[in-house]
Amino acid sequence: MNFVSNLLLFRGFSCFVVNSSRVRYSRFHMIDIHCHILPGLDDGADTLDTACAMAEMAIADGITHVIATPHASQNHTFVPELVKQRRDEIQARLEGKLILATGCDFHLSFENLQDIRENPSRYTLNQKNYLLVEFADYSIPPLLDQALHNLQLSGLRPIITHPERNPLIRAQPERLYRWLRQGCYAQVTAQSLLGKFGPSALEMTHQWLAEGAIHFFASDGHNLTTRPMKLKEAYDMIAKSHGDETAQALFVENPLAAFEGRPLPCVPELPEELGRDESAPPLPKRRKRFWFF
Fold it and tell me: What is the value of pTM for the model shown?
């Protein structure tokens, strides 16, 4: 049974066909590609009961598919077999109410970069070709651009996680623009749009929305209180300020494509002056590219 069939069977979703290979889902059926729901693996859920309560919170909020992404870092050892075991424990309790896949929150350590060359599916979202990449708040290595490029050369599609919460990226947003022009994508935390990570993260989120520099919103849920697995309130804010199609793109269409390992259907062009090499010749004039479905 394919992904769409599963989605229609689980909870009786309403939808309509856009073309022979695309389906658009009604507005509160969202997909969360970044969370820390698996218990006892990192700084996320502490017990199986907490994890299941987080899952129920997500279901009640309108989330239908989740990718559990524990940290793969020096502080948190990433063991795929254990990740799968914890995922299966949660899925067994949910009785088909939520589709739960796995991935990781990938830190660009030397050891991780060596291993992913040999075992990419250990780390990628739903074992496809998208990879969440997290940077430290205190340092962005000078060779990071090359590391991202090497990941792309190996067939992976890096997604920069919560750049709006990183003070170094906020101070030098041109670095993010350059990574996006290089072919990376950006995922912002839904709670940032609600002001839960402070005014600087909120301001940058609004700026990047206006510039077309965001491709996903996700919960990055860690618990039931301060870091919940909720997306609906942020979806409503985007739908009101930028239109329902943009909200669908950021909470449904692009996350679905990442879940399935397909090219993103909704990628706005950055303004020409952002992230370009100043020594490069001017870009030829092109027609403006809109969100499309």
Answer: 0.86
